[in-house]
From TrEMBL:
GO terms for biological process: galactose catabolic process via UDP-galactose, Leloir pathway. It comes from Microbacterium immunditiarum. Belongs to the NAD(P)-dependent epimerase/dehydratase family. The keyword Methyltransferase does not apply. Pathway: Carbohydrate metabolism; galactose metabolism. Residues 3-254 form the NAD-dependent epimerase/dehydratase domain. InterPro entries: Epimerase_deHydtase (IPR001509), NAD(P)-bd_dom_sf (IPR036291), UDP_G4E (IPR005886). This is UDP-glucose 4-epimerase. The keyword NAD applies. Its EC number is 5.1.3.2. Its cofactor is NAD(+). The lineage of its organism: Bacteria, Bacillati, Actinomycetota, Actinomycetes, Micrococcales. It catalyses: UDP-alpha-D-glucose = UDP-alpha-D-galactose.
Amino acid sequence: MSWLVTGGAGYIGAHIVRALGDAGLSPVVIDDLSSGHEEFVPAEVPFVRGTILDRGLLERTLREHGVEGVIHVAGFKYAGVSVQRPLHTYAQNVEGTRLVLEAMAAADVSNIVFSSSAAVYGTPDVDLVTEDTAKRPASPYGESKLIGEWLLRDQAVATAESEHPLRHTSLRYFNVVGSADPEVHDSSPHNLFPLVFEALLDGRTPRINGDDYATPDGTNVRDYVHVHDIALAHVVAAQRLASGEPIEPAYNLGSGDGLSVRQIMDAMARVTGIDFTPEIAPRRPGDPDRIVASGELAARDLDWRMRHTVDDMVRSGWEARRTAR
């Protein structure tokens, strides 16, 4: 039996594919390569190029590869851009998830791990976000992820008495960084790590958007979590679903304390050996001071823990980006 990874040619998906293989599971990838890279998929892993909006292709892939579960990573992940492209965001993330669930039902596949997002919380008014914190998404992207969670919940209710009841969990994570394989790097044009790496490689000075936040060093604080830790949590969730063990509907993959942007910049200079003083740019509208989540529930059930220091995160990401240059 195998596990289908939608979006498995992307930065996070490709790490999940490798972690599945390391755990003795058999990954299969479907990806339309709109933001993924076929070379990120190991040669021995079956790769299907196509969109999750093609329900027939999804069902055929599930049947032909004897899939027992889906790790659903594919989607449009740019929160800021989603404000300008709401219809595209909903098509990819809401309709895409609906079609994944529909194809699963048709092929009698009943396990799904959904890659959700901290964006479901919007700008929380608590110091430490838990799974019960109010959901107030502030972008079409965050809304689409929350609707995805609702789709899983409602399909589970609808199939509860059927021969193949849906078993599911959603993993909400924050700023994913680093690399566990120098052949796989974050190529997003919007994430902090690749933005800083590109600036350093081009001889430009990285910048910080605002240094007057209500935080110890004036820069905003976020959860930064290593991509390998994220991948391992997905694998444990898949194993738990397949074995019939109890599982929560959602988990935060959070650090519990967070890192500031200035701490990240200091680590960038320290690890790369490139001495720089970040430029200070104006705040971005709507950027909250701090968003940090508790990972206690995931630690209890999914072996979730922070296995990497900030220097590990920077060093691995920097190595992967330089390898790709």
